[in-house]
Amino acid sequence: MKIVYLLCSVIIWFSKMSYLNQKQIEEYLALINDGEISEDDLEDSDTEGNENFYENGDDLLHDLESPLEEENDDPDNDPFMAGDPPLINEATANDTAVPQVPFPSTSQSSRRATMRGLVWKVKKIVLNSDQTAFHGDTTYPPELKDEATTGTPYSIFSHFITSEIVQRIVEESNLYSVQKNVTKPLNLSETELRKFMAILIYMSVIKYPNVRLYWSNTVGFQPIKDIMTVNRFETIRRFLHFNNNEKHLPKEHPQHDRLHKIRPIISHLNEKFALVPMEQKLSIDEQMCATKVAHFMKQYLPNKPHKWGFKLYVMCSVKGYAHKFEIYTGQENERLPDEPDFGPVGNIVVRLARGVPRHINHIIYFDNFYTSVPLVTYLAKQGIYSLGTVQSNRLVNCKLPDKKTMMKKSVPRGTYEEQMTEFDGIDLTAVTWKDNKVVTFLSSYVGAEPVGQVERFDKAKKTRIKISCPHIIKEYNAHMGGVDLMDSFIGRYRIAMRSRKWYLRIFYHLLDMTVINSWLVYKNLKTTEANSSVLNLCNYRLELAEVLAKVNNSFELCNKRGRPSTSNSVEMEIQAKKRRGPAQHIPPKDIRTDNVGHWPGNCVRSRCKMPGCKGYTQNRCEKCGVALCLTTTKNCFKNFHM
């Protein structure tokens, strides 16, 4: 341990003396902790938040002075702070970037030379509605479009968490258990893994302070207790695995992947998320996977609600649907041969935008952490408009008033100025506007006109006043919040179970993201139905968990085309009955129609639960738990399960 402290101190001292660049420091840190953790019983504890990961002040200093990428001093939720971080200097960019790919028109040297020759003019950008009209197709693919009338939470969720990835997780988990102890295999099945995910989703809605309390005899949660025992749940959690450790390349290998343990899940979800067609307007922003686990990839972002955790870069629609994401590791991913190099930050946007269709007028919004003149120009040449807040030092030769000038009392609130330039044949406009602070925007498609008005509170007059607001500000505020909306959805019902295994914490976060995406697809497919019949997020998660826990996955569920079946008629009657008022719980359609485990049993004489039947019976379905007629003249039991 003393050696580790000494090595950390040496790293910090050398970094302050500028003898080590960022990449070298990260390599030294990776030697201390390569992502593995101790494989003792402590890793399965759910007391992550109560642990002290810093034994002394040196450890805390090491974490705070970590050379990994830190949060921008000018965060997206407050882009007006005075401490704007400078651009990455040339030495750092050359040290950390991958070898340059020949790309003459966008090389760094030629780009810098062109930037120095930028000429800004007091001029307004003018694009008519036809030039920015969206020419893409937002129609869902056939496999999702068929869910419009018969889709259930489970069937839509299964388009993202498919049987293939479930089988992959089962195989890797069983392999990992044998690698740990060949005499005690896990023997996990696909059905059992779905039950495990059902418990996780239940726990995201029903909050207990400790995992074992869900199985308590006094205050336990019965639906979870009925799924599996607590010992089996903890055993699955202990051996849950997603990739073979024996295939993990060493750190010295050029193809070494720091996310090897979770890579199959990341690749699979990105592939499935991309199946949903993109809307015209998209936004890119950071997202936090909150955790306090001790790991060198963990980031500290002081301006986020969850300050510690793994950082994700996500591209979302205005409604919050996540089309693509990547997890920050400190490694610079390789660029494709036809992609320019905009540095570590600009390349994030380029990678996330790879799946965006070209030349149909998509628009991407981002904050000043990403925005630069070369990046906005590159996207425009690809047929993608963009808009973002920008740091003033990235607008070379621009004569817009600086913050000190704009913040003078003689300059009234609502003052704005606009200037325009041409870079590599693309017209760009920059607008600076004074609100309570000064903000500057850069865009390739929209400017200050038409100018509107917004209300603000005037402290001197003690009343609300109207001030001028350029159109570019309204455009940005209306469409930049997609990632924040996804964050708010996840935050309502987050899988908060703690773990010292870092890849499990990421898996829980990605499972939350998948549930949200499936819910957004479900809502979009149900737009023609009454709002009262569309499940809210809480009920959606509860129904999804119930089906995952009970449905037998050996029978494939499919939606038949053609005339409505008896099952659809029964389902409509059941939903109408639920809306009329409180009633006995009826299992979801996916459970009723799975054709497995529905055995008749005896019960106290009760009214039949088949819609339209007013008879009484002493027969019930053991799996569904409802009374149903089963006689020679009336077979409600059969009709209910069709």
Automatic annotation (TrEMBL):
Residues 39-49 have a biased composition (Acidic residues). The keyword Signal applies. It comes from the Eukaryota. Keywords: Signal. Coiled coil: none annotated. Residues 152-519 form the PiggyBac transposable element-derived protein domain. Transmembrane segments: none annotated. InterPro entries: PGBD. The keyword ATP-binding does not apply. Residues 1-22 form the signal peptide. Pfam families: DDE_Tnp_1_7. Residues 39-59 are annotated as: Disordered. This is PiggyBac transposable element-derived protein 2-like. The lineage of its organism: Eukaryota, Metazoa, Ecdysozoa, Arthropoda, Hexapoda.
